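Re-running protein acetyllysine N-acetyltransferase to confirm reproducibility after the cluster update. Everything else is unchanged from the original entry.
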Amino acid sequence: MQKNNNAQELLEIIKNSKHVAVLTGAGISTLSGIPDFRGVGGLYSRKDIDANKLFDIHYFKKDPAYYYKNSRDFLYESAARPNIVHESLAKLEEKGLIKAVITQNIDLLHQKAGSKTVFELHGSPKQHYCLSCGKEFDFDTVLSMLQKVDVPMCPDCGGILKPRIVFFGESLPEYDLDNAEYHAKKADFLLVLGTSLTVYPAAAIPEITHRSGGKLGIVNASSTYVDNACVFKAADLGSIFEELNVLL
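Result of re-run:
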């Protein structure tokens, strides 16, 4: 991908737009040391974990310990911290320059950086719920449970707790999907960051903006199907956002 724009140009586009939404993927989390699930060193390349079992709802119900044991290091006890992209997006929102972040990521780094309006297309472990009675538990409560047990259980009914991550075999969260589509339609500029736009329905978000008359921008290492339609295009997330953060 040709690198033909800079941070100053991106900031001008954002400032001259009325409704900016951002779509983020795994590429922004790699800057925090979290491997892309399907990239080098990602879950699908690990020999010690069967990634297809890890996020399969049927396997979870059969053996929830498999999920909790193998997700501890990157979800519950992760040392990953928000990076310059997460921090800059939170700052842009605080200044009123972006309206929403739509993310495919489940690592909670947007929230940890301070972003308030985040719609998680694939859910996250921010909330857990009992598979038996439906009672909700927050992340910190479950994390505390996992210091003592291998599988967190509901103190009321003894049911297994499941994170609100979208596992294979489950539907996407309706609330987040509806809000993502709303902001995609409303956006006069949609900025796509760190995603190759190959996984649907997230990959359709830019199409919605484009059909609604909005402009597109993208910062991603590899090419995508929307590149030719973008008014802003760059390859290196780190350098663009290092520059952008200085300008904010």
